[in-house]
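Checklist before submission:
- one chain only
- standard amino acids only
- sequence pasted in full

Submission:
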Amino acid sequence: MEIITSTSNSGVKMVKTLLAKARARKQNNCFVAEGSRMVLETPEELLQEIYISQSYLEKIQSDEIGNESNIFGKFQNKIHVVSDGVMKDMSDTQTPQGILAVIRCPEYDMNDLMDASGEKTFLLVLENVQDPGNLGTMFRTAEGAGATGIIMSKDTVDIYNPKTVRSTMGSLYRMPYVIVDNLRDEVEKLKSKGVKFYAAHLRGKDDYDRFDYTGPTGFFIGNEGNGLTDELSHLSDEYVKIPMSGEIESLNAAMAAGILMYEANRQRRI
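Returned file contents:
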């Protein structure tokens, strides 16, 4: 198999562009995922191209990496081998694992986020969340807590940002999500279908664990620095309070989201 040794290769240049520019990801409707776990967990229909380093190929051939060697036989027609130097140049990580892939963006609509019966709909609604790590963590937590979907405002950090992709740890492939132009309109439509929304808010008077989340439920999480806008928070059915000791005024956005989602998870399990 021919080994790509030049960073001027068109495929290598495309990977670097996709990693660096949100506009390129949007225009090409694809993104880059790095690391064996993220690549191996990618649904086959979304995989476009796979790049592996020369040293990773050698590990495959010597069977040093166990089940990961299956990728070579399964996706041989999509694999390109690059020199270790080229892999280091095209990677977004300090210590490349030696494998990355170009992946087509999944496509969902609002119906994909809803429970089939409508009774167990469980949504996370994100307004202008800006930290890639927070967003990725919320995806992982939402999957773990049993959420049915995530709705994001268009000014939320790019879900395909390489740091966000890594921090989802594969949940990106399993948690349905939509990015909407007008969060207010979508929330109002969902409210008309019986979804109740809760906002963690400084004006909340009752603790979050005093509410019933067993019916169709959604949680609002806002920007890390400014919280929710008044426009969105006024659409909530209830303001809820997460009690805190000490002198802090608020929690990390991903932490707050996790507390609320796992309370819903606890109630639904009971």
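Reviewer check: Residues 253-269 form the longest helix (17 residues).
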